[in-house]
Design brief:
This protein is of the alpha/beta class. The chain is built from seven helices and nine strands. A seven-stranded parallel β-sheet has the order 3-2-1-4-6-8-9, sandwiched between helices. The model has no long low-confidence stretch (mean pLDDT about 95).
Amino acid sequence: MSDTGSSRFSRRVCLVTGAATGIGRAVAWRMAEEGADVAVLDINVDELETTRAGIQARGGTAFAVIADVSVPDDVRAAISQVESVLGPIDVLVSNAGVPIVGKVHDITLSDWDRTFAINTRSTFVVVQAVLHGMRERRRGTISITASSAALVAEAGSAPYAPSKAALVNFTKQVAVENAALGIRCNCVCPGWVDTPFNDPAFTSDSERVETVSRQVPMGREGLPDEIASAILFACSDDASYMTGHTLVIDGGLTLGPT
Ligand SMILES: NC(=O)c1ccc[n+]([C@@H]2O[C@H](COP(=O)([O-])OP(=O)(O)OC[C@H]3O[C@@H](n4cnc5c(N)ncnc54)[C@H](O)[C@@H]3O)[C@@H](O)[C@H]2O)c1
């Protein structure tokens, strides 16, 4: 149970993509603790089942749907399924992502297209699919997971960083077009977070600890729960006057050299 002891998402239907592990799982579990009915979408069947079971264990109604976010028709079908089982989606957390990196002169067109299909185009597809209903009902909140990589240049971060930078502006587009209807959209930019996502970036635990302590002023990776806290805030009525905003949660990573 979160230590807020609140139920900010009572009677709300939430959909979290990329919820099988890491940040998405933490968001799903925290939303369940705060009263939501939670739909979770991912491509990883086994881990998604663990997330689904964890929602139920926290007293929430859970619905799990397997889909590849880079396949638009599958995403749209999954959202219809969620709405027919749980009802209209009040809260969307578009969070699925992959860490495909490399230098501009090395990466392939297929690296670029795959990264943008999963990290960027999928967000457009999932947001558009829920927006129609949110606009009719004149309510809804959306959180998009970008990255601190969206805000700075770092050699070797293409195509990942550009795919996330696009999400920062996309958030603002959604926000400005829908603010008058009472629909809010914000994004979060995590720095290094302790999830399976970063495993391929390091050859050993000691390299991981050394890199993070050198780059991050706070000297450590963030926890999935620390990112979930910001996402829940952005999606809750606590943030009722905040839209189009970018929340940077990175232990100071983007502040400059330590
Ligand atoms: N971990 C970090 O350091 C970090 C930093 C900045 C931003 N992020 C972003 O946070 C988000 C969540 O990442 P995480 O750290 O929790 O990593 P994670 O690997 O634990 O979670 C990513 C999830 O996305 C799912 N996914 C990947 N491709 C998919 C597809 N085609 N269809 C459906 N689901 C798919 C994975 O199965 C996984 O469950 C990502 O968008 C990532 O870019 C992570």
